[in-house]
Amino acid sequence: MINYFKTKLSIFLLLMFFLFNSSFAFEYSSSEEKNFINVYEHTLPSIVSIEADIDRGTSGGTGCIISKDGIILTSSHVIENAKNIKVTTHSGKNYNAKVLAILKNKNDLALIKIDTKESLQLSKFGDSNDIKVGQRVLTIGCPFGFNNTLTTGIISRIDKERNKIQTDAAINPGCSGGPLLNLKGEIIGINQSIYNPDNNRSNIGIGFALPSNYVTDFIQRANKKIAKSN
Fold first, then answer.
1. 176 is catalytic
2. What is the pTM of this model?
């Protein structure tokens, strides 16, 4: 009889252990967390890392694939005056890239191209006119060469005068040219810079992105010029 009750107690405790851990796992895996994971996994194949040989050494950045034939959007300061530009896709393949179009200074956008037969996934753009302060955002980039890094935050401010989206999502050197994403996985901005009044190269919680509508307008204008020149 004692052994019988010991067996029953052991089974009861075992069931309670599994029920507790299952409940805990369910509570931990919130809908927002699952959404972060889904956005990251679906967006990552459309993002590339960029290394450019410049006079001062190597410039690192991030890029967004925008066409099946290998056109990539990035920040102009990443590749400006570069001798060689190397692009690494999500599959791990490396390519040499050439510059197609470039905007300098505060505009800070560029189109580069790789020649590949690889099946490329395209980035998806959203409407930056719909964004709100306080909205959750995600970024994917290559900070300090750590490829495929995801960070999260909110839109902290919308600077219409300077045409910038301010965010507290971590943006560091190597993230320039990467996407600022909404929770639908749409690009609402292209990460550009951080505020560093003390020449601090790392993130202090104030980063800036160019709005997606401005970016898509640049892409359309650049593509028209490229088509005319060909």
1. yes
2. 0.84
